[in-house]
Task: structure prediction
Amino acid sequence: MTPLALFLLACLTVFLGCIEAAFSSLMKLSLRLMAERGGKSDRLGEYLDDPLQLFVPLRLLIAACVIFAALFIARLTDVHDPRSVLVLFLGLAAFVVVCEHVIPGLIVRRDPESVLDILLPPFHVLAKGLREHAYAVDVAR
Result:
């Protein structure tokens, strides 16, 4: 069960990493101007106008994925001595580098705008749910 959960977390982290890599590359002026002129996606335009709407929920979700990955890797390595702690840290570092940077970079490098057109609709649902949950918690105080 733990390896499956770790694999699913890796997939989610790659998904979120692709959004971050594509959006970050679009933030470069020349690509941003092309994207704004293209007018393909209204949602992309909203996020380009206010990048914090994208980056805050994105970073929160990636942080949650990394924390859960650390828990699952710790469960797999059965942390009990210095060697297993080293394996935990190396495993977590590999998880972050590969799932958050390398694979998304390879996926996004050719056409970041097309990647965002595909990935933003499901991310928007996640971000909207996160915003509504945060608002409900804020109202409850």
About this structure: The mean pLDDT is 85. The radius of gyration is 17 Å. Residues 112-140 form the longest helix (29 residues). DSSP finds six helices and no strands in the chain.
